[in-house]
Every structure is written in structure tokens, then in C-alpha cells.
Amino acid sequence: MDMDGFFSVVIPTMWRSDKISDLLKKYQSSKLVKEIIIIDNDPSQKIDLRKYKKVKYYTEGKNIFVNPAWNIGNLLSSHNLILSNDDIIIDNVDEVLNLIKTSDFDIVGVRLGEKTDNFRINEIRMFPKNHYGSFMYIKNYFHVPNTIKIWFGDDLQFDNNQKKGVLVNAGINSNDSQTVNLINNAVINEVYLRDKELYHEIKPTIFKPTDFETKPKVLSVLVNYGDEQIEYLERVTKELKSFEKYDVTVIVNSNIPLDDPSIDVVNVFDNLDDYQLLPITCRKTIWENKDNYDIFIFGENDHLFLEHHVDRYLEYCQILPEDRIAGLIQYEENKNGKFYPAYHKHYDWDYNSVEIHGGKLFAHFKNLHQATFILTKEQVLNIGEWFEDFYGPKTHYSVKCRVNTDIYGHSGLKKLICISDFKDNLIHHLPNLYINGDKGRNKGQRAEEDKMTNALIRLFNYDKKKVVCGIATVYERLESLKKVVESIIDQVDELYVYQNGYKGMFDFLKHDKITVISSVDTSIDMGDAGKFYTVDKHPDCYYLSIDDDILYPSDYVLSIVEGIKKYNNQCIVTHHGRSFDISAESYHANYIDSVHFRKKLQKPKEIHFPGTGVMGFYTDTFDIKFSDFKYRNIADLIVGVEASKRGVKKICLPHDSEWLVDTHTNAGGGNLFEINKTNKELNEYFLDNLHFIFGQAEPLVRNKTKNPLLNSINFDPNKNKVSNVDYDKVNQLLSKNNVKANPQPVKPIQNKPVDRRDIEKLRRDSLVSLAKKLQNVRPTTQNQSPHVFGGRSRQ
User: Fold this and answer.
1) If you placed Cys at 652, which of 70, 122, 595, 728 could pair as Cys (CB 3.0 to 4.6 Å)?
2) Which residues, listed in sequence order, are joined to residue 24 by a DSSP beta bridge?
């Protein structure tokens, strides 16, 4: 048992259980529970918590689900961690916690059952499922990726702890997750299958510290000046020599002799004019021993290295790119909590620096100086000879600080802190000088724990951008619109409903998330483009465009947002789309590939024109504006063209058939697909802009003479002659392409040239006019699907 022997109990809740009040009373009266951390996933149902003095309360105002709530709870906790359901009953809390406290297990879950005299912890190797995670002690918490919402968080904790146990006969029972049971089974199945898929994706990337053939050799080189901090130095060296998994050699470079049995070598530098030059001697010492050790540690004499610092560092080396390097953050501590002396003034986190490696979150802390570094032999050799005595260009860091900041600032290595394991990457500055401003230190040069916690929550939520949704509708679709709104409203932060041709505030639209806009007020009715009326008012968010006749499943927004993230926010994603060849001459007839939202798609597919009724994008990447929609009811085409102009790819995401459900109300308000079959503006726009889809600056010059109908007539207008006309072939091609000649029939022509009078008659009667008509007709491609991409946007 680590820390102070007390416990923090984390409880995610939606207040569905009738057991939670009794449970809070038990935790409140426990002598071993120091804090109860409530993660409220449904504040509208919150009970009165004022009588529970140990409660720490946190909410994001919505359901963030179980695993993300655990992540936040672990971050907020100050003691040994217990994750607890809100629906369990425990006969004797302190008896259970004391058994855990006196054990040496790294993780302990529970087997439900009555209390007996044979109350114990059994060691296990396989994850037992069935309620194990409903009450769980975790020594080494593993940050669960926020994409894994409900299930498999306990599996990941089990996978990442060594000695595993289960409480049996402990008198712990449950009413079997009322929160989950109150959710529709279809929803649960969708989330479960997605969590399962993501768990198996992340599981192979979980790494352990490197297994060396022999015990790794560690060289720790520390700097000491004078005898002011000898007591701290002795504590630091003693801790280093206590490492069990590593063979540690301690060298101290000092300006005075030292008598410490934990130090292997003391190098005395008593002739330096400036004590700030003393730390650089440590880098020289490391370089001189570069071939003799596996791992190198540098620190000042008052920074307490622990064995898990090295464990974690080796783990990160396996998952970080070569140009990234893991680091530590200093902290000080008193009875009021932790303080961070390096977190002050302009030194803050880079909130745009979050990276994911091996399923863990890393971020860059702008203050490079933490008085420490850990390097592997390979990293030292890669840095090269300048490591020995090089100082980088002058910076705001002092000379002695630059001994370690140079490693991160001038060696091509970007320093990252693993915020998933934040507590394991803190190093104690033992004197605690900055807390009270002792010995002339600047008391303001520190940050309190709340500031750091809030920063970490912001970093954890780096990808939790606002989700805004736009929909355009007509009055004839009112009943369908109601169903659509009900299916999507709980999944988004804001919903904008654009009413084309009417104005009405109906009861189902009276919601704090919904804004209703009417063309009656704006005097703009652009049909389906109305779903983008406010798009340019939402920077740095995920924007989803939907239709008023599709029911969206409960995991729809999650699927779209995760799809956008998968492509680093750089792509438009959709579940419906169409692609063309560059020589296409008809939007409806000449597509070469299509994806329909009702038909299964097994793998992602890049397309040219995305279906805007099932589409999403990150607004800072695709900065389309409502003013870009200059034509009515052709939003799919306009989005496809504008995306290509901006170099933004359009990806159809995999989906099952019938995952998205049509409300079958196509008759109401008209079917845009049918209407657009005769929309000349649509095809003109398509032909005028198709070159953008293929990255060409100029429109395609089309070779009209290649049309087999035109060729079959053999009419040369320059020579005013026709010859060798195969009328059977002409009629066959006319019928196939649904093209009608002039009403006057074409008389047979003998297989010989004709004179000018004949040509004038033929031109007047049929062939010339037919030839002109054929210059705008392209033959139908075989085996094309009858449905047309874009048919969903029909407002």
C-alpha cells in the first residue's frame, strides 16, 4: 500500500440507483476514506450532498460515461484509489479497506456475495468479468482512452497491474447497474461493440519496461554545492541505492568533500569561480561514462528520484517517436496539498500539444527546467559530443538551468510529460522552499494544486470540442422532423433548425440546445443549404449536417466525431457519397462509384461528393460559409467542390446496413432526388466545377466527337457531307440513350456522296440538328445503380 494508507473513493453516477444515499453514508463514516469524489453524469438528477463533508464534486454538465469519469476521478484523488459503483452495498467498509491496506496486491476487485468468516483476497491471473470492477482498488491506474466509454476500463486496469486479487465473501452486493439497465438494449449493444473493438485496438500497444538480459546499469550523477542541503542529498542517494530492478551507481560532483555511504564516487571541484558552472561538470561525467551504463540520471541534490521514474521512462521510450523525450515535473508539498514551483508567470502547458502514443496522453510543459533528466545510452550517443560541454544559445534560463534545458531545447528532442500517468511523473523538490517563500525564494513562483488539476482536465479534454448540428426542413416534414430531433438532440451541444418557407416554434423545438431560424425572417430560402446557415459562426468545433427524414442512432455523433479524429480533423467524413471519372458529363448518369447510407460499407472509401445529410467536419479545417452556397438544393455538389478547392479529402466511413433509418416520408415536401433529375442548374454547376475535383485549374475541354452516335452519322459540317450512315446502328443508339431525332424521318441515303442540295435538306430535316443535339449527350455507362448520390438532401 502506497501513499498515506488512506483512500479516495471515486463514484461516477447518474443518480439512478436507490442505494447511493446509503453508500455515501458508509463512506462518510469510514475512518479510512478521506474523500468521496462524485463524478456527476446527470446533474439534473443530483441529490443534496451538503451533509457529506468528504465529498468532492465534479461535473461536465453531461454524461461523459464511466471510463472518462474514472480518468477524472483518478486525477482529482489524493490517496489510494478505489473505484466504486453507485449501486453497491458493503457490510463493513473499513474492514474491507483494511484488508486491502495490509495486502501487497496491485489491483483488487470484488466477487459479490454475503459476508462469511472466510473473508479474504484470492490471487488470480485471468480477468473474472461479472462485477469485478464494481468495487476496485488500483495501485497503478491506467488512463483509459476516452473513446472507450463504458466497458473494458476494468480490463485495462487488470492488464496493467502486476499482482491481481479478488475479494471473496466480503459482504458486497449490487442491484446490477440500474443505470445501464435503464438504457435501451440496442444502444447498449452499439456502445459495447464499439468499446470492444477499441479495447482490442489499444491492448496490443500497452508496453512494459524493457526486459534487459541482465539488471540494467544506471549511473546517477548529482550536483551538490556546500553543506546547506546535505540532509536532502543523503535522502536522495539512499533512495537511489534502494532500487531493486536496477544496478545503480551514484556519483556526486561537489565543491566540498562528502562522507555519505550511499555515494560511490565524489568528484570535488573546489576551484570554480562561479558555482553555476558546477552542474555542467555532471554532463561531462556522464559523457566520460557513456559506454559503461544503460541509463543515465542527472539531478540536483534535493530532487527525490524514485524507482518508478525509471520504470516509466523506459516504458515511454518504447512508445514515443525518436524525436520525443519524456520528462518529469517538480512539486512541493505541505498539509494543504501539492504546489508546482515551475508553474508560474508565462510558464504554462501548451494546450495544443497533446499527442497519443501507446494509448497514453502526452503534452508539452513550456518550462523545460525541472532540474532533472533521464536518458538512455542510445539517447546520449545520439545527442553526440556537444553533450559534454555545449551550452545552447543564451535564453532566459540561467547557466545552471541550461545543463538540463539544453537536452530538451537544442538536441532535436521535444520534451513531453505523460499526463495519463501524471502522478508517476512528479518529482519531489524536498526543501519545499517556494511554498512559504523560505530562504529568499519567491513565494509567488508556484502554482497550487487546483490550477494544475484544472490544466490537466483541460488537456484530458483536448479533443472534446463542441458538437454543433445543422438541419434544414420544410413544413411538410414536420412529423418526420420531430422524430429526427428526438434521435439527435441528446448527442449534440447545439442544434440549428432552418425552416424553409414557414415559421413556427413547436413544443418539441423548445429546448435550450435548439435555435430555430426561419426563411420568413431571413428572406433566404436556399433549400438544403439552410443546414449551413450558421456554420461560419462556430470555429474550433465539430459541425454535423443532417436531414429531416433520417433517424440517427444513439452512437451516431460519437461515430462521426471519432471518424473525424481518426483523420486528425483533416477530412470531411460522411456515410453517403459518389465519385466520377473526369470525363463525366452528367451528375445523375455518369458516376463510377457510390456509397449509400442504408447499405453496408466495410472499409473507409474516399469519394468526390459527400452526402450532406450524414456528414461531419472540423470547422477550422473546412471553413465553408453559407455564402458559398450560391445555388439552391445542390449542397452535396457545392460541399464537394469547395472541399476540393481547399484540398480537404472526403471519406465515407464504414457502417452497417440499416444503421441509419429512413423515415419513409419522401412524399412530404417533394423528393429532391427526383426534382434534381431535371435541374439544369445542378448539371451546369457539376460540369463547370468538375475540374476542381481532380485538382485542375481550368475546366476540362471535352472531345464531343467521340460520342458513338455522332460518329455513326459521319457528318462533316466543314465539308457539308455525310456518308456511310448505318441507320440500324443510329436507331439502336438513339433508343439506348433515349434521344429523339426531329419528327421528320431521315430518308435512306445511298452508300455514295450527296450533293449540296441533299446536304441542306438533311441538315434541315434531321441529321444536322441531331448532330448538334448529340454534342451534349454522353452514352449511359453500363451496370449503374439507379439511385443517385445526394438524394438525401431534399429540403
Assistant:
1) 595
2) none
667 CB-near residues (< 8 Å, 6+ apart): none
pLDDT in tens, 88-101: 989 899 999 999 99
pLDDT digits (tens, 9 = 90+) for 255-271: 999 999 999 999 999 88
DSSP string for 302-327: TEE--HHHHHHHHHHHHHS-TTEEE-
Q: Would you call 104 exposed, middle or buried from its count of C-beta atoms within 10 A (0-12, 13-18, 19+)?
A: exposed
Q: Which of 87, 40, 69, 63 is nearest to 181 (CA)?
A: 87
Nine cell digits for residue 658: 440499416
Per this entry, what is the length of the chain?
A: 795
The dihedral sign for the CA sequence 155, 160, 164, 167: negative
| Whether 35 contacts 54, CB under 8 Å | yes
H-run or E-run covering 172? strand 164-174
**Confidence at residue 787, expressed as pLDDT on a 0 to 100 scale:** 29
Task: Classify burial at 369, counting beta carbons within 10 Å of its beta carbon; exposed 0-12, middle 13-18, buried 19 or more.
Answer: buried
- Kindly state the cell numbers that stand for 380: 546520449
CB 596 within 8 A of CB 576: yes
Give the burial string for 573-587 (b: 16+ CB within 10 Å, else e): bbbbbbbbeeebbbb
CB 508 within 8 A of CB 576: no
- In angstroms, the CA 495 to CA 124 distance is 49
Rounded to whole angstroms, how far apart are CA atoms 732 and 89? 82
At 617, give phi and psi (nearest 5°).
-160, 165
Dig out the grid coordinates for 247 from the structure: 544496478
Other CB atoms within 10 Å distance of the CB of residue 273: 6
pLDDT below 70 — which residues of the chain?
A: 1-3, 175-188, 203-212, 345, 389-397, 437-446, 664-679, 700-795
